């Protein structure tokens, strides 16, 4: 064990005492734990002995300048990457990169306070208007990461864990704020403009049409294969969603959210668009000698995955199944969900429809179905919602037409009131 050292330090406030002792090296470099500001050597000795004893009993954090962002990278590698399902790893990665690192990543791990985290959580719920489930999921990642900092890394003591005392906003309060936020319903005229900008033949056309006409989630749209479409029965079956693993550059097929396998009806417009696309792809395959972008579904660690650019004569196991994605290019290559990021930017910047997101098409489809008088249970099944409350509560937004009708009624009521006077 290293020796406990003491020294005087001259500060603007006067002479103070400091204790320090050497701790475990990091990256081969010597590290020290120190603390100053004591008025007497006796005070420094008392505090130093306790810190020294606590450290060698693994009760105190090794004082480093590690940022929370760097710590999260280590935590993901040590506890999530190879120990959780790939879908869980992808979900955590998105939460960390999109939400946690931008807000807290540049802070020192030991410098993050309970109030820092509480303000972050409240901001997500009440200023950025994220759903209750999103807020809860982000908090879960925070809680898990800080718990490991205490229990395994010993970067923090139990009393230093900033998650203790952090409150989760009440679900009804988050829902109230979310419902007061301007809706992202896409009017029919707006969607027509969008389709005129991305007509048949563009890579974004079919995903846009499926989202608007069927209300599928993004991963479900791009997870569709032609076996999922029954042209005779006029139905589409949701069997999977596709996710992308940035680490391995690999597509992964996983179950739909909430295990919401379902079969839904197709209207004549989307059915015609799908028929034309299938005919086009069959012609492309017949006319191109180099149409080698075939995909096979294989099993790996219990999950079904797809590997791109696998020739039918190349590496392929007997149990692997060839699959043909609905969204693919003329050479057979898979159209990634990432194209919707570019599509959204164009819609925002060129068309001025700034509230558009791919998910807004799902919102719009649900709202249109409710406006048409379709049974709630039917809509719930079509959307793949976990329960009916999600169908009614999450999408309880007004369209512009509803607002106009309501205002007209209000004016009529007010005019009657005036006459009564």
List keywords for this structure.
three-stranded antiparallel sheet, 421 residues, five-stranded antiparallel sheet, alpha+beta
Question: Describe it for me?
Answer:
This protein has 421 residues and is of the alpha+beta class. Helices cover 47% and strands 15% of the residues. The strands form three sheets. It has a five-stranded antiparallel sheet with strand order 6-7-10-9-11. A three-stranded antiparallel sheet has the order 1-2-3, with helices on one face. Strands 4-5-8 form a three-stranded antiparallel sheet, with no helix packed on it. A hairpin with a 2-residue loop joins strand 9 and strand 10 (303-307).
Short synopsis of the structure:
By secondary structure, the chain is of the alpha+beta class. It has 15 helices and eleven strands.
Write the layout of secondary structure elements.
Blueprint: E1 5-11, E2 14-26, E3 29-38, H1 41-56, H2 68-80, H3 86-104, H4 114-126, H5 132-151, H6 171-180, H7 188-197, H8 205-214, H9 218-222, E4 229-230, E5 235-238, E6 241-245, E7 250-254, E8 262-265, H10 268-287, E9 295-300, E10 303-307, E11 321-323, H11 339-349, H12 358-371, H13 376-383, H14 388-393, H15 400-420
Antiparallel strand pairs: 1-2, 2-3, 4-5, 5-8, 6-7, 7-10, 9-10, 9-11
Rg over C-alpha atoms, rounded to the nearest angstrom:
29 Å
Low-confidence parts lasting 5 or more residues at pLDDT below 50? 305-316
Question: Could you give the distance between the termini?
Answer: 92 Å
SS field, number of helical segments: 15
- Which strand order does the major sheet show? 6-7-10-9-11
Q: Give me the secondary-structure category.
A: alpha+beta
Strand content: 15-25%
How many beta strands in the DSSP annotation? Answer: 11
Structural shape = elongated
The portion of residues assigned to helices is 40-55%
For the sheet with most strands, the description reads:
5 strands, antiparallel
**For the residues shown, what is the average pLDDT?**
81
Query: How do the SSEs run, as a string of H and E?
Result: EEEHHHHHHHHHEEEEEHEEEHHHHH
